[in-house]
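Archive entry. Fields below.
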Amino acid sequence: MGYKIIPIPGVGRPEYSIATTIPISPSYVAGITKVYYTGIINVSPESWSVILPQDRYENPFPRKDKILKLETFVLSTDADVLIKLQCFHVPYYYYQKFLKGEIDLVTLLNNSYPFVTETGYQRIDAKPLLYPISYPDLLIVAFTNYSDATRTMYFYWRGEEHGL
Amino acid sequence: MDYKLVKTEVVKKGEKADIILVDGNDVVYFKIKEE
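PREDICTED_STRUCTURE:
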């Protein structure tokens, strides 16, 4: 609640009614970075869009020598239509082949692990339960719009990046 | 079904952004590149 109880020394039972006004930050284990990624995207009718989340320097997640643990993923859209969310654990080996142009996007995803596949109307709230992806593997997400009109999709994922 | 890989680029704070990344204490704004 933002208060720290300070027992008064030497007076027997601590006086718990005394509190400071100094806020106490939630405790995090050293070396863990919280990552939030949120946005809006228009997805064409009966098609899917693929996003490779990257940081400021165009590094995919997880970054070097890190593990990304995905906690929550929410996808919603602007109408009560069928949508699908997929989160892929992409092996580095196939990603390199993709970057070299040796395989296409579909082949890349067919060789990846879809650790989240959720289909629903208008809103999907996925809980990957801190599914871990270790560097140099990476995260790719895909949104499918099954309707016959372009849909605006709103997405949001939250995770933690730990040291290896 | 058709598909496309969405490409993004970093934009400055204050510019119109489609995606926001909160990376620890760093906040990064991205725009989706139209093809």
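CURATOR_NOTE: Chain A has a mean pLDDT of 89.
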